[in-house]
Design a protein that fits this description.
TIM Barrel; single chain; four-stranded mixed β-sheet; 26 strands; Immunoglobulin-like; six-stranded mixed β-sheet
């Protein structure tokens, strides 16, 4: 062990305490041992270091920081160099604010458009997500700060996220939900990983040895530390044994006592504890040294400019009929839409950034060569009808040559802690859009949304610029594109399905009870739509430009593919070339095509460039559940190069030899997976894919410490049901106002055990067991446990603190 000398001096009490946080964001320090404290902070798209008392959900204000576009936005750039630049700026700001570990990026797969946190995640495709995450990680860590990719793993829904069991077959786990993390670890060299709230196949992610030891540490060679999501620890001792280092935020000393008892009973070994302490010491000591002589400032203007560049590179032009864009100099426009006045530029929850400045369209449009005939909010973002404002907007639209309509998902539509119920934009915005279209056919829509949306109204618009959530400098980026100062080059990192019912997991998401079954398997996003031949509105990888590109001269060999791209238009611009691989007639079922490479290429008008995309270890592999290894099937692979998943320009072939003759499936037993039509997989077929019986996810009559508080609906205690009804009423009241109450949402979805993990030691697990007994109808017995547990916990905490103090002296 690297820090054997320090570990030998540590008592078991110090070791146990060290493996849990001392506050909302900090680790414990031990002066006598020369062990400093390090500081963690949220930061997927901006540093969120709170100035006062810390809280996980961002209820208290944070220090000003640059709010960059969210991951869902940046993924549309398909630009690893941009991702690295963003990472560097994030790392600089983190260092300036005294943050040692930046909790991001988020790279969970967008299994369903309904996940409330999709705005924080990169893509429906693991290869693209992994490459972009790795670029962030390299940038952040180049500044001496550790990046912490999250949430490991299979964390696809917010509903009951802390009390949910993800049931998934091993192949889907490896190919879809772990590949992005694998790339972030192997190529990005991530030094920390955040474990997820949920169970994976019945074992909590933070104590899942298959995830944390077998795969993360042994197979991928991860040599950093694993940090729990805030409150994600279940059995701390099993977490330590499985490979988890730091339990956050501040469970108090009850967890430390739990760890000591586990060693004394033989449940885990002292060697397990020492390994985790050594790994955590390495991180703490390294980060402490990195932070010496740091600057306390960063260049706000330069970082704002980076945010603007990122927003420009990531906007996706979905439609441009009659080349209405870019706007002609001096064009007479009407500015309509609430988002033009108060932009929707980031998501809600723990990632909420306090921006250094925020641009709005109405404030900056005077800087551009357009004639503004009028500005109107047009609609209320809370969904309420406003007849007077609507009438004002329509009158303006009648007089304008072109209407610039700013609309999208409001704050209540997507947030940490809650999933969406549908994919629709608020109806009052669409009603206004239709009315505007009746008086002016030259409508240009500028969309703000962090998740995929249904667009049955898209024909009302001549042009659509989808900006996702484009950060504090988004308004300037939008105007740069609309006026032609910048040629749009973003392409969709997720599919825009025609309707929710077309998604592969429509019948499986969200789960109705305690288990969420990934019955669609590997058929996520375009993998499903292409294979099952389901038409979509805008395909994965799609995006228009103000110029045109031609592909030619494909050459394929064993090392990779090369081809030429020519800018055949009159405007300089960038094209994102995508390489897909398929195996027609495969014996092992697979999607029709899968992304295996991409490159963003800038070309001047008339210019040609040769593009090379090498094959790598992920190009031809599949995970074989029989051999429990990555294998390659023999065959002539179809190499497809194109402008999107649905716009293949060049095709070639390359032959590969097999790595095993042992095939994992019998085709006639799982016909849905061979056809890709996976919306109605029955129990028998799913069990064959799983290789085991489907677990019973129904709630039992007795609630346990791992059941969510919202499940008090089933409580036998009238008092508990009353508490549930009050909590639900508070939640509905907040939802009705258009702004979700994150504190209520967190409590609503958290399990009872989290009370002992997130109250700074005020509540022990003994007390939690008593609370659950009360909920289950045993009031006096449970109350007795709570009261006795309270006094015992206080006494033991004081004893433990005194022991640590005596050791220090």
């Amino acid at each position: 062990m690297k820090y054997q000398d320090i570990i030998e001096k540590m008592t078991i009490e110090e070791k146990a305490a060290f493996l849990s946080g001392k506050g909302e964001w900090q680790t414990r320090d031990f002066e006598r041992l020369g062990i400093p404290s390090i500081f963690c902070s949220d930061g997927p798209h901006g540093v969120r270091k709170q100035a006062g008392a810390g809280d996980h959900l961002g209820l208290n204000a944070s220090l000003p920081a640059t709010c960059f576009p969210t991951a869902a936005t940046i993924a549309n750039s398909w630009d690893e160099e941009l991702g690295e630049t963003l990472g560097q700026t994030l790392g600089e700001e983190a260092m300036a604010e005294g943050v040692n570990v930046l909790l991001g990026p988020g790279l969970n797969i967008k299994r369903s458009p309904l996940c409330g946190r999709n705005f924080e995640y990169f893509s429906e495709d693991p290869y693209l997500a992994g490459k972009m995450a790795a670029s962030y990680v390299r940038g952040i860590q180049s500044k001496g700060v550790y990046a912490c990719p999250k949430h490991f793993a299979v964390n696809s829904q917010e509903l009951r996220r802390m009390a949910m069991n993800s049931v998934i077959d091993e192949r889907t786990l490896r190919e879809i939900y772990l590949t992005g993390f694998e790339i972030a670890v192997k190529e990005g060299k991530a030094k920390t990983i955040m474990s997820a709230y949920n169970e994976v196949n019945g074992v909590y992610a933070n104590e899942n040895k298959h995830l944390l030891t077998d795969i993360l540490r042994d197979e991928w060679g991860f040599d950093g530390i694993v940090i729990t999501d805030w409150g994600a620890s279940n059995d701390h001792a099993l977490g330590v044994a499985a490979g988890s280092n730091l339990e956050m935020p501040n469970p108090g000393l009850d967890s430390a006592r739990e760890l000591i008892a586990a060693v004394e009973s033989g449940k885990i070994s002292i060697e397990d504890v020492d390994k985790r302490v050594d790994e955590l010491l390495d991180a703490v000591m390294t980060l402490y040294v990195n932070a010496q002589n740091k600057s306390d400032k960063f260049d706000e203007k330069a970082h704002h400019d980076v945010a603007r560049k990122a927003a420009r590179e990531s906007a996706v032009l979905l439609k441009n009929e009659d080349n209405i864009l870019p706007l002609k100099p001096g064009a007479k426009v009407a500015i309509i839409g609430d988002f033009a006045f108060d932009p929707r530029y980031q998501g809600a929850g723990s990632s909420l950034v306090n921006p250094t400045k925020v641009e709005s369209i109405v404030d900056i449009i005077s800087e551009y060569d357009v004639q503004v005939l009028g500005k109107s909010r047009g609609y209320s973002r809370d969904g309420q009808e406003d007849a007077a404002t609507r009438k004002e907007a329509i009158a303006m639209a009648e007089k304008a040559d072109i209407v610039l309509y700013f609309f999208g998902l409001n704050e209540d539509s997507e947030s940490e802690g809650m999933d969406r119920n549908h994919m629709r934009i608020p109806q009052n915005q669409i009603d206004l859009l239709k009315e505007l279209g009746q008086v002016n056919s030259n409508l240009v829509g500028v969309i703000s949304a962090g998740s995929a949306i249904e667009m049955p109204w898209h024909h009302y618009l001549k042009a659509m610029l989808h900006c996702y959530l484009n950060g504090q400098a988004g308004a300037g980026a939008v105007m740069d594109i609309l006026t032609g100062a910048v040629n749009p080059s973003g392409k969709l990192s997720e599919t825009m399905a025609r309707r929710l019912e077309d998604t592969s997991c429509y019948r499986y998401y969200p789960s109705s009870e305690r288990t969420t079954e990934y019955r669609e398997g590997i058929y996520v996003g375009y993998r499903y739509y292409d294979t099952a031949e389901v038409p979509v509105l805008y395909p994965f990888g799609f995006g228009l430009s103000y110029t045109t590109f031609e592909y030619s001269d494909l050459f394929v060999n064993a090392e990779g593919a090369s081809f030429t791209i020519t800018n055949t238009g009159k405007v300089d611009g960038a094209e994102i070339a995508q390489l897909y691989v398929g195996l027609p007639g495969a014996q092992v079922f697979r999607p029709k095509k899968e992304l295996k490479g991409f490159k963003k290429v800038f070309l001047k008008a008339g210019e040609s460039k040769k593009v090379e995309i090498p094959f790598d270890d992920k190009t031809f592999r599949y995970f074989n559940v029989k051999t429990n290894k990555w294998e390659v099937e023999e065959g002539s692979y179809l190499i497809m190069v194109g402008a999107s998943s649905a716009d293949i320009r060049l095709t070639g072939n390359v032959s590969k030899a097999e790595t095993t003759k042992e095939l994992p499936y019998v085709p006639h037993q799982i016909p849905s997976y061979y056809s890709g039509k996976v919306q109605t997989v029955d129990n028998k077929e799913y069990e064959i894919l799983l290789g085991r019986t489907i677990p019973d996810g129904k709630w039992s009559g007795q609630l346990s410490v791992n059941d969510a508080i919202c499940q008090m609906y089933y409580a036998k205690s009238g008092l508990a049901r009353f508490a549930y009804n009050r909590l639900t009423a508070m939640k509905k009241k907040a939802d009705a106002k258009g702004k979700p109450d994150l504190n209520i949402l967190f409590i609503y979805n958290m399990p009872f055990r989290a009370m002992a993990k997130m109250t700074g030691g005020a509540v022990s697990m003994d007390m939690v067991y008593g609370i659950v007994e009360i909920v289950n109808g045993h009031f006096f017995r449970g109350l007795g446990k709570v009261i006795s547990g309270y006094f015992r916990n206080g006494k033991l905490n004081k004893k433990y603190e005194a022991k640590l103090k005596n050791i220090a002296e």
